[in-house]
Design brief:
transmembrane, disordered N terminus, mainly alpha, single chain, membrane
Length: 142
């Protein structure tokens, strides 16, 4: 511990370096300083995390663009291959388009059923709340 005679810190409320008021004042200042440093660290860390998030999001958008282009090229290749099999490019395009349309409709119907209100109802939570209410009422009544 520092010698009171050589300690050049500001004195506490009543002038004595070891007084309760002085110690409380020091503790409050150090706590405030620590809180400021923690907030600064939090801001820096969140800034870095957001930067990483946006970088990852940009990479995902780029990947989606390349995936769509690849899908278009592969679809064109499928139409051309099928055209050699059926000897008609128009018929090949119609077949491939119909298959893709069927897949799209199937995915849309599946997505609609997944987003229906009945699937969004929290059934497990509702069941648990009812069970808790029943147990509480049994304990209160008996």
């Amino acid at each position: 511990m520092a010698d009171p005679m050589t300690d050049h810190r500001p004195l506490g409320g009543n002038g004595a370096p070891g007084s309760i008021q002085g110690l409380l004042g020091d503790a409050l200042r150090e706590t405030t300083d620590l809180a400021r440093k923690e907030i600064a660290l939090f801001r820096t860390e969140m800034s870095n995390n957001l930067r990483s998030l946006f970088l990852g999001l940009g990479m995902m958008v780029g990947a989606a663009v390349f995936a769509v282009v690849a899908l278009l090229v592969l679809t064109d290749a499928l139409v051309k291959w099928l055209a050699t099999v059926v000897n008609s490019e128009a018929l090949a395009a119609l077949i491939v388009g119909a298959v893709f349309l069927a897949i799209g409709i199937g995915l849309a119907l599946w997505g609609r059923s997944a987003m229906s209100l009945s699937t969004l109802t929290p059934t497990r939570t509702t069941r648990q709340v009812r069970q808790d209410a029943r147990v509480l009422s049994e304990r209160v009544s008996g």
